[in-house]
Design a protein that fits this description.
Number of helices of chain A: 4
Largest interface: A-B, 24 and 27 residues
CATH architecture of the domain at 420-506 in chain B: 2-Layer Sandwich
CATH class of chain A: Mainly Alpha
Strand content of chain A: under 5%
Number of strands of chain A: 0
Order of helices and strands of chain A: HHHH
CATH superfamily of the domain at 420-506 in chain B: ANL, C-terminal domain
Helix content of chain A: 55-70%
CATH superfamily of chain A: ACP-like
Strand content of chain B: 25-35%
CATH class of the domain at 420-506 in chain B: Alpha Beta
Oligomer: heterodimer
Helix content of chain B: 25-40%
Largest sheet of chain A: none
Strand order of the largest sheet of chain B: 11-12-13-14-15
Distance between the termini of chain A: 19 Å
Radius of gyration of chain B: 23 Å
Chain lengths: 76, 508
């Protein structure tokens, strides 16, 4: 989780990722952030997030995103 | 529509042909042509009755159908619109207002708070209230009779290297010239369904807004958050049966790069036009292989020459090492490739891309000096006044005679489809208390804006300061603090050394 938080902090140091639950629906992220996150997650965790998983509920909070990464790592 | 001299003639005509057809559709509302026509006339009447004429009127509204009606309303009053957006930070809005000093702003509820904060003293119209005015056809007609085609139609602001955004002023003639030729290239007709991606505060949105009223086409304003969700974006294109898109390259590579085309293909798209930066060959090949029947058109052009100036339709199967040309100019536009000693570049030679023709805008608002630097006398014509626009882009012709983009003469970059002066980012940070000096670089490969700064400020504070002062597409993607700026032997900042430093930090 810390590695993920580092990626996210780099993008938006002003956000408290412990509590924020509307990163996509609240338009904190933009498309550049999404592309960056997916690339860095790929580098760091060696998982590819498939297009159908790039939806609000998986990216709206750090926790949800981490859950997605863990799930994808398990499926490997 | 012979001898057209005003863009509103498109609207006057089309409202008689397709009064009840949808022109612009946003998340909440669809505007028919008759509603666009009616509300534009009402807003125009209101402005005229209150004494506004031939002056800039700011439109400070969210991206929505009525924002477009507001543009036409302002033009009906013989004024020119200046689109701004809630996305822009207060600081930038303030800078733009200092240049414009507008006497009136048309806004929606979301913008009112910002206007208060920057202490704006002029007239504020709430759009919804302003369009309750009764339309006065005689008044509007009288204004139209006096209009000429070199009257200003809009001002859009682009990044300025001195830290002050530049307002590019376009006129009816250049917009009409652009829309006529662009529509031919895109093959727009009444069955065209556009999916708009570009913000309404840049000239890129001309591609959808004006052909829509010329032909009676329909434009969907695609909700911004879909550009974070690639598969949903494709589903949206299919659900709305969108057949024509003119997007910035990053919006297209966003879909292909994240694998969305593997899951679903935009089935109705027959024309995909793109611009703003070079389309990476590998990504382009994904699009081409998934949609073999679709026309793909590369567009190129600076805001100063009204929208786009050149196009290249890719008909051949693309190769991984291929670079898509800029191609050839639109009809009625000439590209001159000028060498440093002002000759036309010969075979294989490089030169600055310069533009000649009606497409040229009128120049920068209240910035004669800046205007005269970029809009200059054609050096090949010593006989009478004739302006060309020097883009600052360096190009060359390939063996087929197609124009190719090579590089920039200065520190202007393209990032996320926006044109950015790195100097503007530096100027903003240099003003931050505690910062001694800031220098900005661009990592072309990873598409990241990098800033190095010296001073007693934490990285997090520097980022926050940027977010407050700069539009989000200009906020650096990476900020590094250093003890001292490396200097060259003659005392200038050593950008190459910084680039090395960045490479090493990146661990490449």
């Amino acid at each position: 989780m810390n590695e993920l938080l580092e990626i996210l902090q780099d993008l938006h140091p002003e956000i408290d990722y412990d509590t924020h639950t509307q990163l996509v629906t609240g338009k904190v992220f933009d498309s550049f952030d999404i592309v960056t996150i997916i690339a860095e997650v790929n580098d760091t965790f060696d998982v590819t997030i498939p297009a159908e998983e790039i939806v609000e509920k998986n990216f709206d909070s750090a926790k949800a995103l981490y859950a997605l990464i863990t799930r994808l790592m398990d499926e490997d | 529509m012979d001898r057209q001299n005003n863009v509103l003639e498109y609207l006057d005509h089309i409202v008689t042909v397709y009064p009840d057809k949808n022109a612009y559709i946003d998340e909440k509302e669809a505007y028919t042509f008759s509603r666009v026509y009616e509300e534009a006339g009402r807003l125009g009447t209101r402005l005229l009755k209150d004494g506004f004429y031939k002056e800039p009127i700011v439109v400070f509204m969210r991206k929505q159908s009525c924002t477009i009606a507001a543009f036409f309303g302002i033009v009906s009053a013989g004024c020119y619109y200046v689109p701004l957006d809630e996305e822009l930070p207060e600081y930038r809005v303030e800078l733009i207002f200092q240049t414009l000093n507008p006497r009136a702003v048309v806004c929606d509820a979301s913008a009112a708070a910002v206007l208060e904060k920057i202490n704006y003293q002029g007239k504020i119209y709430q759009y919804d209230e302003a369009v309750l005015t009764e339309r006065d056809p005689v008044l509007l007609q009288n204004i139209r009779k006096k209009a000429i085609d070199t009257d200003a139609i809009y001002i859009v602001f682009t990044s300025g290297s001195t830290g002050i955004p530049k307002g590019v002023v376009a006129c009816h003639r250049s917009v009409i010239d652009y829309i006529e030729t662009l529509s031919d290239v895109l093959m727009v007709d009444e069955n065209t369904v556009f999916g708009n991606q570009a913000p309404l505060y840049v000239d890129a949105c001309l591609k959808e807004l004006y052909p829509t009223i010329k032909f009676g086409a329909t434009t969907y304003l695609i909700p911004k958050e879909l550009f974070m969700l690639p598969l949903k974006l494709v589903e949206f294109l299919n659900e709305k049966k969108i057949n024509t898109i003119c997007w910035v390259v990053p919006a297209l590579t966003f879909i292909s790069g994240l694998g969305a085309l593997e899951k679903e293909v935009p089935r109705y798209l027959r024309t995909v036009a793109f611009g703003s930066e070079v389309f990476p060959a590998k990504q382009f090949m994904i699009w081409q292989s998934k949609m073999p029947e679709t026309r793909f058109i590369n567009l190129y052009g600076p805001t100063e020459a009204t929208g786009m100036s050149c196009f290249y339709e890719i008909k051949e199967e693309w190769k991984p090492d291929g670079v898509i040309p800029i191609g050839r100019p639109f009809p009625n536009t000439e590209i001159m490739l000028l060498t440093e000693d002002n000759r036309l570049a010969g075979d294989g030679e490089q030169g600055e891309i310069c533009i000649r023709g009606t497409a040229l805008t009128l120049g920068y608002y209240k910035a004669f000096e800046k205007t005269n630097e970029a809009f200059v006398q054609n050096p090949l014509n010593p006989n009478y006044p004739e302006l060309i626009y020097r883009t600052g882009d360096i190009g060359t012709y390939n063996q087929e005679g197609e124009l190719m983009f090579l590089s920039r003469k200065d520190y202007q970059i393209k990032h996320m489809g926006h044109r950015i002066e790195l100097g503007e980012i530096e100027m903003v940070l240099n003003r931050m208390p505690g910062i001694l000096q800031a220098v900005s670089l661009f990592d072309q490969e990873k598409k990241k804006i990098i800033v190095f700064y010296a001073g007693e400020v934490s990285k997090a504070d520097a980022v926050l300061y940027c977010r407050e002062k700069l539009p989000r597409y200009m906020v650096p993607n990476r900020i590094e603090q250093i003890e001292q700026m490396p200097l060259t032997l003659n005392g200038k900042i050593d950008r190459l050394a910084l680039r090395e430093l960045y490479k090493n930090k990146k661990g490449v």
